[in-house]
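Collaborator request, handled under Task 6.
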Amino acid sequence: MAISPGYNERAWAIDVISEINALSAPLNRAIVRAGGEYTLRANTGSLFPDVLLFGDKNGAMVLQGWELKMPDTSIDDGALLINAKEKANRLGLNSFIVWNVDQAALYMKDETENFLHVKAWPSINIKRREDVKTNREAWRNLLQKIIFELNDLFDYGSLLGARPEAAISDLLFVDYLEAYTPKLAAEIKRATQVDAFFDAQLKIWWAENKSEYVDISEFEAMARVNLVNWINRILFAHYLKRFNKIASAAESIVEGTTVNEAIEIFNVISDSCDFMNVFKAPLGQEYLDDLTWDGLVALNGFLKDFNLSDISQPSFHNIIDSVLAYSRKKLAGQFSTPRPLADLLVRLSIRDRSKPTLDATCGTGTIARAAFELKKSVGLSTPDALGTTWASDKFDFPLQLCSIALSDPGGMGEVVQVFRHDAFFLKVGQKIEFTDPNTGDLINRSLPTMHAAVSNLPFVRFEDIDELNSGLSEIKASLGQDCIGEQALDNRADLYAFLVLKLRELVDDKGRIGIICSNSWLGTNWGVQFKEILINCFKIKQVVISGEGRWFANADVVTTILVLEKKQRSEISDELIEFITTTDRVENWAATAGGVDHMAAQMLVSNKSGNGFIKREYSLADIKSLAAIGVGWNAMFADVSWVTALSKKLVLASTLFDINRGERRGWDPLFYPAVGHGIESQFIQPVLKSARDIEGLIANAESEAFCCSDSMQTLTSMGMSGHSFPLM
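Structure tokens returned to the collaborator:
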């Protein structure tokens, strides 16, 4: 009999899924239903199994994945087994089945996390592709046996499924980026070749963001950002289905839906549900290659099959937290704020939790979320906590994650106050536009005077400020004029120093500013002036540094927490400044006794060291006295109070010694003389100056170095003067 041209692996898999659903419907067993049709498009390289077994009608448990092949593929085929193992691991499953119509095999993880062959179903003598459709009854009978025996294994605990937070984890998104980034990057590069306007936009975006991405091109960076953005939009739409039926429109994104049609679907959802920052299409979103788009459509189908809208709130928030953590890593890299650090910052900085709080450089929203949760933890309702939490950023991309971070089931119908704006141009009372999630109408809210501003401020060196912050030079001179008079901040100061003065304009009298910033202000020349300005404009409450590892493990920048309280220059005070050193690595703070909450409470009320930190206190008078004898602020984290008692006995070292800065040999032409120098050969040695000069396995030293330990007197007596360096 001739083979039906339409009956292939995909057609058979769809029949298998239908048969499993028919078999399971009347039973009250572990396997409730099957899904997976969305994964079966040919040549898409789907990251999901061909068939998924679900353990309840609401889809809150994935039991197992199956990989299906026609009979001409061996049941022991290496590529088939590797593919099945990878997909099982991706979804957190401890078993899988491979089935080539003729035979089926069950694999299960052992104690060492290796998959072992534990069961086989014998041959039903279907050896050719063309026999599959005509022998439906034979493979259907085998399917019944498989389902019956699997139900026993699941019911009695030998096999385990995966809860949603295991199946929809960061591992899934890691694999998505690894699988699709190269193709998408190539598509974005192609788009710049045919669209000059997009090419110009990408160049501007890259100039502003390239410091966040190490050793990759602008095309790969944008590919990563766009993939994460698409994944988050799809996931969040399925989350919103439980609150607004309009979000169910995401289910209509299926095979055959175009990219532009999907973008319009998300626009419709955003118009009705707000969350514009989550759903709007940022730069380059329309440039998707076919393979990547098929993979995203498959993900949408998987989430639809999972019935995410019906799973428990705790489970879904575990999923959201996992996705946010991974997204932040890929979008913000080493500069994403560790959550314990964000918790400490907001607890030290926000005194009245019922009043407005702003993160003006919110990035992916870790600090804004910490502030929101702090407000809820002290008894504010979710609407009140959201209504007093504001977050903005100069860039579009991180606002998606910040908006997701501030989503809360108890706040559906409330405006999430996340918006795009350059912090330097924010003004109290200016109108900020949001969408009313209940009506879809645009509404304006006035930016209130803030009680507290909390931020991880961007680290931009002074050389790059004007290039990356056009218009800043026009407002630099006006910052903090009410408290610093004619003393404008040095133009060589890093960007965060100017931002501190800007944030001062946005907080009320006695308002708090809590920032994470580079420690450069503690030891630079411009930092001397900056500290004087801080003393004039603020009460400096706390300076916190790490005594055990960097808070941002992969960053070159060493950071501090700086907590300030606004004051007027006319306020004369000699307040104590607390210099605090944390003694545990930031990732271990939550495990300390009482966690971050207790550590912050001790820092706030105790004048002594506590669990996880060492505290020193100095008055402004003490600091001034110590500065007069050369003791800088970096020393204040130790006990240097005893130095003052010795001050009358100290003399400047320069009165006893001639002190000069040493020479770096690589910068002095004396040590690497030019060609034709004429120096006597016994004083010249071959030198390999750089590994860049190595072109093969054996390197040749092609430069020369001047090496001489003889005195001038000895050289003169020997008549050795050289031609390029005559003796004086």
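The cover message to the collaborator said: "The first strand starts at residue 33 and ends at 35. The chain has four domains: 9-162, 171-332, 337-391+425-645, 665-718. Please let us know whether this matches your experimental observations."
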